[in-house]
Amino acid sequence: MESRSRRAFLTGRRVSQDPWVAFCRRLRDAVAGTVFEFDKHEGMGSARLVPKHGSDVHHARALCAEYGVVLALDGLQEAARLDERPVLWVEPGRDMAGCQRLEPGSTKWFVQPGCLLGELEAAGMSQFADLPCHITVAAWIADRNLCDWDSGQTSRSGVEHASVLLADGSSVGLGPFGERNQKPLSGLRLQQLVSSLFQLAGHADAQACRQAARWPGRYRLDALLPAAGHSVNLAHLLLGHGGDLGWVEWVVLDERLARPQVDAPYAQRYALRTREQEDVNRGATDLDTRIKALFDPADLYPYPGQDL
């Protein structure tokens, strides 16, 4: 039997590989899509993945978790600076841009994250005519300005269902929740997440935030606190999430309900929060921290995300 020392002599000493180099090599080997590597900035690596299949994002998530790389949504109009950790920007491209009715005559559409808003308009959803035609559905859902409906009125988004890839690798389906929806929550991870979110929605901070005309936090916990005439929908938790909570794999839009937000009050309100609102602002910030921890305890996704 050949000894280890003899093999080492014959093959030479193995040079330890830079973790970022190893990450990029394994990513290229694992995915069918395209990987673009950028120059390092102050020693931090960054790259972009344009996935070909949804499974590419699952492979990328696993490698990001293993190597401590941030998985960030590409294409946001105002994304956070990500300088302190290596980052993989994921751009949902043309291979993930499907858009079709669920069935003939239905008002509900199955939409993949790479579909452009201009394509939704061309398909007949004129509600999107005044929004930027070049941005993806994934970027629209993540954008806090474009998803800034009044408190308790997130149903105006038209989002009925969504599938989201969480940091631990779970894919969970989010949608209507309540007496009229008899479909049970699938999986222990989703059951625990939803239970914790409802507990948080009953907290005094959430109740105070709900009294504001516009939701003061980053993450739309008011999806669980709907206004009269609106119903609870767990998918609305993703509206304006900034790419911080997970990767949106697909959504179902109801063209009858979609009333996209066309003005952009969130950025101005967040920058100009008044001293009189300090208690509510502190409560909103605390809620955001807790929601982020529930969805992404390992900070795989950006934190705090689209920081306005």
Comma- or semicolon-separated keywords:
alpha+beta, five-stranded antiparallel beta sheet, 9 helices, Uridine Diphospho-n-acetylenolpyruvylglucosamine Reductase, domain 3, 2 domains, globular, four-stranded mixed beta sheet
Layout of SSEs?
Elements: H1 4-11, H2 19-30, E1 34-37, E2 46-50, H3 54-67, E3 70-73, E4 87-90, E5 99-101, E6 108-111, H4 117-122, H5 137-142, E7 159-165, E8 171-174, H6 188-201, H7 204-210, E9 247-254, H8 265-271, H9 278-295
Helix pairs in contact: 2-3, 6-9, 7-9
Structure description:
- The protein is an alpha+beta fold and about 300 residues long.
- The protein folds into 2 domains: about 90 residues, Uridine Diphospho-n-acetylenolpyruvylglucosamine Reductase, domain 2; about 200 residues, Uridine Diphospho-n-acetylenolpyruvylglucosamine Reductase, domain 3 (2-Layer Sandwich).
- About 30% of the residues lie in helices and about 15% in strands.
- It has 9 helices and 9 strands.
- The protein has a 5-stranded antiparallel sheet with strand order 5-6-9-7-8.
- Helix 2 runs antiparallel to helix 3, helix 6 packs antiparallel against helix 9 and helix 7 crosses helix 9.
- The radius of gyration is 21 Å and the shape is globular.
- The termini are far apart.
- The mean pLDDT is about 85.
- This is FAD-binding PCMH-type domain-containing protein.
